[in-house]
Amino acid sequence: MVKMSVDTVKVKELQICSSSNGDERQSWEEKEELQEKHPGITASAQQVTVRRARKVEGGVFFPKPENAVTIAVSTRVLFRTEREEKVFEQHGVEEYLRYQIEHENEPFAPGPAFPLVKALEAVNARLRELYPQSEELFDIVLVTYNHAHVGIRLINTINHHNLFIERFCMTGGSSPIGYLKAWHTNLYLSADADKVREALAEGIAAATMFMAEKRTEVSESQLRVAFDGDAVLFSDESERIFKAHGLDKFFEHERENEDTLLDHGPLKGFLEALGKLQKKFYAKGQRLDCPIRTYLVTARSAASSGIRALKTLRAWGLEIDEALFLAGAPKGPMLEKIRPHIYFDDQMFHVEGAAEMGTIAAHVPYGIAQKHAGKNSGVAK
Q1: Tens of pLDDT along 93-134?
Q2: I need a labelling partner for 266 at 20 to 30 A (CA). Which of 6, 275, 342, 365 fits?
Q3: DSSP string covering 84-148, please?
Q4: pTM assigned to the model
């Protein structure tokens, strides 16, 4: 549960599905060593204590926000909270808080952002091996509208799933946007489309996150992030031409301006942050074994309008590992092959298509496409 006035996600009833929690088991040696040091400690306490010890051993694992790549996630995208939302909607905030306290020892099931967070942690593990003292890591912040009374259940859930999340913002119903700025947030993922729009308006990369209707296995060792081009990595300049004047004029405009760089879109900074971490692996000779892989999946045509996009990325000093120019073909089948942990697009048509094919998708409500969305293609609150 995230917000005190709970929104319901209705976009074609995209289902938030559960997945395996990926719990790590302690070795018998760890348990025996801990039991010797702390006789009588319970099994659950053993797991948490050893996890904490692993986190602080051998390096700086709590980086300053300005040095980290900060990913802020809401409770409703990290965990499944549909039951709790119904309690709030039907019985109000007091009964909701009472319910959370009564069930605080019952962990939430994983939500759509869960595999992404696990992948971020896997990248961090590799970075710590190569750069033990570096603060250039992914730093995950749980940002929630919840009251502090719900904190115990959230902490119990995080420990149950063995997630490395130490930073919380529990706003008790207030807007989290100011806190996102204080954390130097590189990406904000939420189920609340209004707050995502508010974050974008403040210059914070953000997206409304959905999960596929069917479960698709994703890599546990390589973070895969896929981006649409226009109105996501780039501005919506070219898309405005297309909406106003049609495809032929769009192609003409792109040919005439192929040496003119596109302006940046809302997620350019996040791609830059990913590229910065990728280069740390390249510097150690691990380009071919890099645990971060990025994809451009665009409806643009390669020969007719792709060169401007590629020249823009090159001028920005950004490397996309794979670029797919689909010339208007459906994106879902390509994304099904990529199996990204998250795919960003500014049009709900593509978000829905990706979700139907099993891809975890996120809507970036930015640009001219939002004004042209049909009744069934906007983000339901």
Answers
A1: 888 889 889 999 999 999 999 999 999 999 999 999 999 989
A2: 6
A3: HHHHHHHH-HHHHHHHHHHTTTSPPPB-TTHHHHHHHHHHHHHHHHH-TT---SEEEEEEE---G
A4: 0.81
